[in-house]
Amino acid sequence: MGALFRGESMALAQLFLQAGSAYECLSELNPNVSVFQRKFVGEVKKCEEMERILGYLVQEIKKADIHLPEGDVAPAAPLLKHILEIQEQLKKLEGELREVTRNKEKLRKNLLELTEYTYMLRVTQAFVRRNEYESCLHANYEEFPSLENEPLVDYNCMHRLGAKLGFISGLVHQAKIEAFERMLWRVCKGYTILTYAELEEYLEDPETGKITKWFVFLISFWGEQIGQKVKKICDCYHCHVYPYPNTGEERRAVIEGLQVRIQDLHTVSKMAVFTFAVSIKMKAIYHVLNLCSFDVTNKCLIAEVWCPVTDLQNLRRALEEGSRKSGASVPSFLNTIPTTETPPTLIRTNKFTAGFQNIVDAYGVGNYKEVNPAVFTIITFPFLFAVMFGDCGHGFLMFLFALFMVVYENHPTFLRSQDEIMKTFFEGRYIILLMGLFSVYTGLIYNDCFSKSLNIFGSGWNVSAMVNHWQMDSLKSNAYLTMDPNISGVFNGVYPLGIDPIWNLASNRLSFLNSFKMKMSVIFGVTHMTFGVVLGVFNHLHFRKKYNIYLVFIPELLFMLCIFGYLVFMIIFKWLAYSAENSRSAPSILIQFMNMFLFPGGEIDNPFPGQAILQKFLLVIAMLSVPVLLLGKPLYLYWLHNGGQGIGLYRNGYKLVRKESEEEIALLRPHDLEEGNSSSDNGHREGDGEEFNFVDICINQTIHTIEYCLGCVSNTASYLRLWALSLAHAQLSEVLWEMIMRVGLRVDATYGIFLLVPVLAFFGVLTIFILLVMEGLSAFLHAVRLHWVEFQNKFYTGEGYKFTPFSFK
Asked: Comparing C-alpha atoms, which of 280, 315, 303, 329 is closest to residue 28?
């Protein structure tokens, strides 16, 4: 929690890597270390050449539509002695593949022919049954299959005529099979036997490139002349003819050869992807080594890196392991060095907090050790979204959608999706999950579910108690009747959860909800901004700027609470002090707030005694806090720079004498020590910070004061968007129900059952695209604005730079 609140503590470390073990040391590093500085140009070029070859291999594999291994391929970085072997294998593979793919169209046809040939052999096995005793055949017929048992061929008759038996097999298009069969019968006059079967798989047509249905055929014929006629007919009908093995052993040998070739292709594809990941790691290692600098002996690499303090021990172990694997006699090591540079910001996140941290980082990466707003954004962001999106029905649909993505977050469909919109939804699945869950809660508070109220606990209003108080003429002439809560039995108590469902039937429902949501928005806004101001105290304390607490934080807090905190107090006081009995005498909060600044004369009805004095006192405190906020910090820094100069230099000189060595003390001139103005001290003071400029500090503080004081007014008004968007969402939901669902439900029961299904489908489509997607996106953007502008600018600077570790990921 501490690391997420402020970020990781960083240390500047100096690595000393032996030249012989530098590669192995970096290959052992975990993905949490960063930036170096120089050499190894040749090795980087070799890695780039390997990456080029592997990119070509992977591209050709994908073009051939060969399945690649699924999941993350993350092999370990290879050792230095294995790199030459990998390079030779890649060059050999590239040469073979380029030789095969010189004619890509021919390769595609060859692959298609191999596939067709394989299927053809499988199907034609059922066409011909062969005699097991082929050795008994006559020598003239050894080159042909024996067909003594073939029922469709008069083998003995043709054998006596001395004719030779032949076979032609292949594939013909589905639309041509009937015409092909008739043509064979007419031309060959019955001297051929055609056997065909439909192929279950769909194959590509090499001429058109479309996936079509094919038939496998086997033609048996006697005599060479008939064989020539059959071949010409096959060419005329664009049949794909393949040689048919004469014996069963030949068929099995051909099928096994095809399977071996297919297996080799898959093996090459897997090895290419594996080696591609290896080459990227090798290139990353050499790129980092190229940024290192050599010492004077050219035997040791030196690099300065930022490393999280918690990972220093892991970094030392990685250096030791790399030195051990390389067999170096002198191990590599690291030293932490002091620095005045601003470290990068590292905030570790997981799959749940990453989305909220991205929202904050989009505003700006926080300064080192600055309070991280993402901790509080996890709760405040989905809550403010839900205030604007409050509908338990819509929120539940959003929750189910996010829950589906969370449950199947490891599914390859989501992990390998290239759709930008789908990737955005998937990366923010936990944000959507909380937004939907909070929307269900606010929907229950608003008592709003698809624009309808839920009467779960029973209304606290009783209509029957008003019957005796209504006149008969009023009942006949008025469509709406007023219920008086002061009459006994009419109002029996507050609804247990949220707004009473009877308000959904009231004619003044909109006025009541507007008043409630407007005041609620002001309370949430002032509370949210005040919380942001309070968080600034943690920054002041951590950076040891306690003067900011007295000269910045306290004036800001007083200005906020004395004006807008008093407005929140008046809202809550009016809710508690006035009931249905004395509601007519309740004052207007707007008028009371205006009178706080206008000082009207005459007698004014005050809600409580001493209100006028309290308002004047709060206004004076708020006005006095403005000059303190405007001039306090610049004047204090000016006094600290000039009035406290002698004391500051004396202390700096004292630290110098106490810290430096005796040789350096002896070199100091006596008058330098007396005046506290040594050259070393001057260098130390220049390194402490920039030169003091009183005018710049005054200008910056003036801008901050004006921005804060005016921003308190505009930001408070900005939170009224919570009320506006909540009202818009409720009204859109109600209009959608009235214009679609209500029409479908009012149709006569005879035809209503048939009309209700398309009406319900249409209502669901509009609900998803208008109320969930469009309204949800609108509420999301407004919630982002409230956090960036109204909340984070009270304490968050966002002017740091992100820690980018050396990583293989």
From this structure: 315
Kindly write down the DSSP assignment for every residue of 515-565, as one continuous string.
HHHHHHHHHHHHHHHHHHHHHHHHHHHHTT-THHIIIIIHHHHHHHIIIII
- Number of H helices and E strands in the chain, helices first, is 32, 10
100-125: per-residue pLDDT in tens? 566 455 556 666 666 777 777 777 66
* pLDDT score, position 692: 80
pLDDT digits (tens, 9 = 90+) for 561-617: 999 999 999 999 999 988 878 888 888 888 888 888 887 765 667 788 888 889 999
User: Which residues lie below 8 Å from residue 802, measured CB to CB, with a gap of 6+?
Assistant: 344, 345, 346, 361, 365
Q: How far is CA 511 from CA 88, 172, 514, in A?
A: 80, 77, 5
Average pLDDT of the chain, as a whole number: 77
Q: Which two tokens stand for residue 390?
A: 């409050």
Angle between helices 392-407 and 429-446 (to 10 degrees): 160
DSSP tag of 132: S
Confidence band (pLDDT; 50, 70, 90) for 138?
very low
Does residue 474 or residue 722 have the better pLDDT? Answer: 722
202-213 as b/e: b if 16+ CB within 10 A = ebbeeeeeeeee
Three-point CA angle 539, 544, 550, nearest 5°: 75
Burial class (CB in 10 A: 0-12, 13-18, 19+), 777: exposed
Give the three-class secondary structure for 211.
strand
Bigger pLDDT: 555 or 659? 555
Q: What's the pTM?
A: 0.69
Max CA pair span of the chain: 137
Query: Which residues are 808's β-sheet partners?
Result: none
Sign of CA dihedral 398, 400, 401, 407: positive
Task: pLDDT band for 59, please (50, 70, 90 cuts).
Answer: confident
Residue-wise over 16-50: b if at least 16 C-beta within 10 A, else e? bbbbbbbbbbbbbbeebbbebeebbeebbebbebb
436-472 exposure pattern, b = at least 16 Cβ within 10 A, e = fewer: bbbbbbbbbbbbbbbbbbbeeeebbbeeebbeeeeee
For residue 537, the tally of other CB atoms under 10 A from its CB is 18
Bridging pattern class, strands 203-204 and 211-212: antiparallel
43, 383 contact by CB (below 8 A): no
Instruction: Return the H-helix or E-strand segment holding 13.
Output: strand 10-18
- Cα–Cα distances in angstroms (integers) from residue 617 to residues 179, 562, 613, 710, in the given order: 105, 9, 6, 21
Residue 108, Cβ density class (10 Å: 0-12 exposed, 13-18 middle, ≥19 buried): middle
- CA–CA dist 224, 683 (Å, integer): 105
Residue count (the chain): 809
Q: Dihedrals φ, ψ of 690, to 5°?
A: -75, 165
The residue behind tokens 């093995």 is 245
Q: CB atoms < 10 A from the CB of 196, how many?
A: 19
- pLDDT band at residue 666 using 50, 70 and 90 as cut-offs: very low
Check residue 322 and give left, alpha or beta (phi > 0: left; psi -120 to 50: alpha).
alpha
Higher-pLDDT residue of 184 and 667 is: 184
Nearest residue to 88 via CA among 265, 285, 275: 275
Contact predicate 203/212, CB 8 Å: yes
pLDDT over 70 at 26, yes or no: no
Are the CB atoms for 113 and 104 separated by under 8 Å?
no
